[in-house]
Amino acid sequence: MERRTSVGGFIWHWRNSEVKLTQAQVCEILGWDTFHLSDLERDKVRPKKEELELLFGLLQLTHEAVGQGYFLAGIAPTEAELSYWVNHTETFLDAFDMPVMLRDFTGKLLNVNSAANRTFPFAKNVRAQRPQWLEVLFDKSLREIPGWDEQLQKHIAIFVADTPFDAREDWYRELLKRMYKNPQFPPFWVQANDDAEYDQPILDGYREVTMPTIIEEGVELTDFTRLSRPASDIRFRIDVFVPKAA
Q: What residue stretches are annotated with the HTH cro/C1-type domain (predicted)?
């Protein structure tokens, strides 16, 4: 199932419609074989980030378009880009009185606001550790919460549906390699791929979720509506957790 626009079509649009250069002109400037650009635009080969940096510069992509291009190519943000977005959004996140989290498209949690720190037991070290969401979900302390395994299964299905990538991406393979070291993970993952709601608009952001929350006696499960919106760079998303009325 194709679940996102191809990076090849994206490159073709910018070359042909925006800057109006021929394949031969682009390849002459970059010193490429004409067949290589043709293969990139037909998605016959997977682009390297170094190639895209050269190509996007030549095609004069906007900052937002560069992020979109890397997203479509499945290329994860660099550490410098992660740090930039953590710093760039910190004041914005803290303006909310509800829990808010910043993540990238690979599912890496980058930062949370003060309300999230007070609400979620896993939030305290997010900024320092930048954990992967699947690893957070599978934390042993959460598995001890009564009823969490059912919610864990739902969260993994949401991750699958909201992440339009697969094991062809380096970061995706590395994530699964780490997760499969836990022998309890594979059955959840197999079931999640059956349960994932692909009919919902990809990354639409509206999800009904149950989260572990801190209470005086310990931790309990609480229902939220998660509202997720992309930043100006589509590789980054901000998730707002709105408590559901009792």
A: 11-66
How many C-beta neighbours within 10 Å does residue 11 have?
24
pTM of the model: 0.88
Q: Which stretches in the chain have pLDDT values below 50?
A: 1-3, 202-203
Residue 113 CB coordination number (10 Å): 25
pLDDT at 106: 95
Rounded-to-integer distance, Cα 145 and Cα 218, Å: 10
Residue-level pLDDT at 43: 93
CA 12 to chain centroid: 24
What 3-state class would DSSP assign to 174?
helix
Q: What is the pLDDT of residue 202?
A: 47
CA 99 to chain centre: 18
Using CA atoms, how far apart are residues 223 and 242, in angstroms rounded to an integer? 9
Burial of residue 184 (CB within 10 Å: 0-12, 13-18, 19+) is exposed
Going along the chain from its start, the domains and CATH numbers come out as: 7-72 (1.10.260.40), 79-243 (3.30.450.180)
Asked whether 101 and 116 are in contact (CB, 8 A), the reply is yes
Q: What is the pLDDT of residues 149-191, one digit of tens each?
A: 999 999 999 998 888 788 888 999 999 999 999 999 999 999 9
Give, as one character, the DSSP assignment of residue 45.
Answer: S
On the 0-12 / 13-18 / 19+ scale of CB atoms within 10 A, 101 is buried
Which of 137, 81, 143 has the alpha carbon at shortest distance from 110?
81
